[in-house]
Design a protein that fits this description.
Length: about 400
């Protein structure tokens, strides 16, 4: 018998099925180590070496796994052991899967390392993974830039497979935009009922009202990129899927979680790296773009779309987290609540920053214009300009950004 209790792997856990799968895919391995509780993986050790056994979701076909395996083989060859491959089964070098009780299983070599996100593995009450970024104070820019370089090499290796019409999932920017807009219009009605009592929801609504039309227009202005399927994207870039050497060693040892791979535009993965890993900043975005461009060409129009795609992704991700934090009664006293809200605030800060860049608020812009007048002497009072006593001839304290009208007196 295995040494670990695997009932956490999925709600319909079947110990006999897992034992049978391990016997076929990793003969002699009957010792297993802990793996993230929200993933259908078992890390086994023994005579066959360190092998990860995976159970695929019900309904997955052998053809779908074969298509993914072909892509991962090419990426593995280009990137090395940092990216997992789906290995042939021991009894048949031409097969990648076995079937046990109507479920497909595969094997891959174990990749050492610990998740970059120390809070990885939290799950919502319904079993869904709670993905959050690193704290904004984390010193992880070099690590994230290293991931960007790995992703660039993976994208380059995947290009021959991305244009295929069968086998691989496809998620273009057009499909992404449709999904985000659908999420926004549905969830703002649900979350709007709690907006009066929750400041975080109000922040999300204010940003979404401005960023959805602006970013949508920016994407629609690039019709070729909207339909592009130039590369195979990772599709799930969060700190929990980045493996590093340890607490003090932030060198990347692995990039896992490729089950969401899909053909589309490279902008999808690049934008995710700028906001999902640690939250958006100009310095991090520049580091990601530079690291990516050193490995694979990035078109100017692709660069321009990164903030727009990142902001739309934030709107959709925050809709899920806000519902979980403020509408799910099962989250009350849940051990993941504090972590959830911390990550949520990082993403909200990023969304507000990007909204200010892409769709600046008119009233805020007026205040920025007015500030030099306030600091010039006329508005030197510590009180707000609206409450400061107005001196004769002083227009600065009430300047609203419009061109001053000409005096009514006789003109020279």
């Amino acid at each position: 018998m295995m040494e670990h209790d695997y009932r956490h792997l999925n709600p319909n856990f079947d110990m006999d099925a897992w034992l049978d799968a391990v016997d076929q895919l990793a003969p002699g391995n009957h010792s297993a180590r802990t793996t993230p509780a929200d993933r259908p993986f078992v890390h086994t050790t023994g005579p066959s070496g360190e092998i990860v056994i995976r159970q695929w979701p019900q309904g997955t076909t052998e053809a779908e796994i074969a298509a993914r395996a072909e892509v991962l083989d090419a990426i593995h060859a280009a990137v090395g052991d940092a990216v997992p491959a789906i290995d042939p089964i021991p009894s048949d070098a031409n097969a990648r899967t076995i079937t046990v009780k109507d479920r497909l299983y595969t094997r891959s070599a174990y990749i050492p390392g610990v998740p970059l996100g120390r809070y990885g593995g939290y799950r919502a009450p319904d079993g869904r993974t709670i993905n959050i970024p690193l704290p904004e104070s984390a010193k992880a820019h070099d690590t994230i830039a290293e991931v960007a370089g790995i992703i660039a090499r993976a994208h380059a290796a995947s290009e021959p497979f991305a244009a295929k019409t069968t086998g691989l999932p496809v998620r273009t920017l057009a499909a992404f935009l449709d999904d985000v807009r659908k999420t926004w219009f549905e969830q703002r009605k649900i979350l709007g009922d709690r907006a009066a009592e929750q400041r975080d929801i109000r922040r999300w609504l204010r940003c979404g009202n401005r960023i959805i039309p602006t970013s949508s227009d920016l994407l629609r202005n690039e019709p070729e990129l909207m339909s592009s399927r130039a590369v195979v994207n990772h599709g799930d870039l969060w700190p929990v899927n980045v493996l590093v050497g340890g607490r003090d060693d932030r060198g990347v040892t692995g990039l896992v979680g490729w089950s969401h791979m899909a053909a589309g535009s490279a902008v999808m993965d690049i934008a995710a790296l700028t906001v999902r890993m640690q939250g958006w900043s100009a310095a991090l975005t520049e580091a990601v773009i530079d690291a990516y461009a050193n490995e694979r060409r990035l078109l100017p129009e692709e660069r321009r779309l990164i903030p727009a795609v990142a902001s739309l992704d934030l709107v959709a991700q925050l809709a899920t987290l806000l519902k979980l934090a403020y509408l799910d009664e099962e989250m009350i006293n849940h051990p993941a609540t504090s972590v959830l809200r911390s990550g949520m605030k990082t993403l909200l800060n990023s969304l507000e920053t990007l909204t200010g860049i892409l769709a600046p608020d008119i009233e805020q812009t007026k205040r920025w214009v007015r500030r030099p007048y306030e600091e010039s002497g006329a508005g030197s009072s510590r009180r707000s300009p609206a409450r400061s006593p107005r001196k004769a001839g002083d227009r600065g304290s009430e300047y609203d950004g419009r061109r001053p009208s000409k005096p009514r007196s006789k003109q020279r």
